[in-house]
Amino acid sequence: MDLQPPVIEMKNLHKAYGSLEVIKGVDITAQKGQVISLIGSSGSGKSTLLRCCNLLEDSQQGEVVFKGEPVIWKGSGHARRPADGDQVMRIRTNLSMVFQQFNLWSHMTVLENVMEAPVTVLKRDRKAVEEAARGYLQKVGISDKCDMYPAQLSGGQQQRAAIARGLCMEPEALLFDEPTSALDPELEQEVVRVIKDLAAEGRTMLIVTHDMKLAADVSDHVVFLHHGRIEEQGPPETLFGAPKSERLRGFLSATLAA
Ligand SMILES: Nc1ncnc2c1ncn2[C@@H]1O[C@H](COP(=O)(O)OP(=O)(O)OP(=O)(O)O)[C@@H](O)[C@H]1O
Ligand SMILES: [Mg+2]
């Protein structure tokens, strides 16, 4: 029996921007090694949920628990904030986020981008970090681009550099927000391959994606969000093979027709 606590738990999470309720009581648990995809229409709350999970966004109600450690809050409702800055840092550095738009530093080389946070935030030894960074760049297939600047790379290469940067933090989990959406189809495949390798390695991942094939191929569990609620969830075979909810059926046929 697995006695390890889940890497990430969100329990009855609620989030509003002013009076606009965006997340309306969501429960998600990611066990170690589990890959969970979040799908749903634009505006359903997928990015917000990822950002609440690594505390980039405040939430007003419910719990966020990292490896059995609940986030400690002060205040309530719209005034609720995490109380312990060290805890926020510990959680955030353990949940590496990969964004649609890569967000690499344009004035740093690829290698410097990958080394930056482990050296400056985690205060790790520079030499050891450089060795690790080169290893991760090799893993994502761009070890020949170490000394180039992001603008000199294709979109697929930039995204793979961003994934190497996330891995170099040696996080407990990776959070992807539409990692392939900004890419042309052939470059998308380079990134999909890297994500599949990471899934096969047993990495814990939450993946927001519009790519139903990616979700079907890599996920242990798929969550369909609709207007800030979980409308349906389950293993990919069931969710894609035999969707129960009318909304999910509509979403899938619209997405697959696009
Ligand atoms: N900073 C913000 N301030 C106000 N409203 C916001 C903010 N960020 C998001 N929203 C609103 O929250 C809702 C959910 O947005 P979110 O970005 O989480 O959706 P999404 O599912 O990621 O959509 P997409 O597929 O388009 O990326 C939307 O109605 C959006 O307009
Ligand atoms: Mg989004």
Summarize the structure.
With 258 residues, this protein is α/β, with parallel strands linked by helices. Helix content is 38%, strand content 25%.
Question: How would you describe this structure to a colleague?
Answer:
The longest helix is centred in the last third of the chain and has 16 residues, at 185-200. The protein is globular. It has helices at 46-53, 85-94, 110-120, 126-139, 155-168, 185-200, 212-218, 236-241, 246-257; strands at 8-17, 20-30, 35-40, 61-66, 69-70, 73-74, 81-82, 95-98, 173-177, 204-208, 221-226, 229-234. The strands form 3 sheets. The protein has a 6-stranded mixed sheet with strand order 8-9-10-3-11-12, sandwiched between helices. The protein is of the alpha/beta class and 258 residues long. It has one domain (8-257): P-loop containing nucleotide triphosphate hydrolases (Rossmann fold), CATH 3.40.50.300. The protein has 9 helices and 12 strands.
Key traits:
258 residues; 9 helices; 6-stranded mixed β-sheet; 12 strands; alpha/beta; Rossmann fold; 4-stranded antiparallel β-sheet; binds magnesium ion; binds adenosine-5'-triphosphate
